[in-house]
Specification:
100 residues, alpha+beta, Glutaredoxin, 4-stranded mixed beta sheet, 4 strands, 35% helix, globular
């Protein structure tokens, strides 16, 4: 299991969200998608706690300091390298992951 990356999306109509998911998959990063249009707690997390105001919001769950909003292709390879450089490839026992 790789480190868990969560992509907070506004739904299938969000082009930047779709591009982000494709780019993460292309560099081999497992992720899960949370739909902000149906999850009020997720909206509160990304806006109030993390301070983001645009989708997608990408959060590396094992590294609370690693999060960003918008389509940021400049960060995908950095994230992949950081995960790859961690012991066990960033694996965390008991953490569910999935690829969309």
């Amino acid at each position: 299991m790789m480190a868990t990356v969560t992509v907070y999306s506004t739904g299938p109509g969000c082009i930047r969200c779709t591009l982000t998911c494709r780019a993460l998959a292309a560099v081999g990063i497992d992720f899960r998608v949370v739909d902000l249009s149906t999850d009020a707690a997720a909206v509160e997390l990304v806006t109030q706690t993390l301070g983001h105001s645009e989708a997608p919001v990408v959060v590396v769950d094992q590294h609370p300091d690693m999060h960003w909003s918008g389509f940021r292709p400049d960060l995908f390879t950095q994230l992949a390298a950081r995960i790859e450089g961690e012991p066990n490839g960033g694996q965390t026992a008991g953490t569910p992951t999935g690829r969309v």
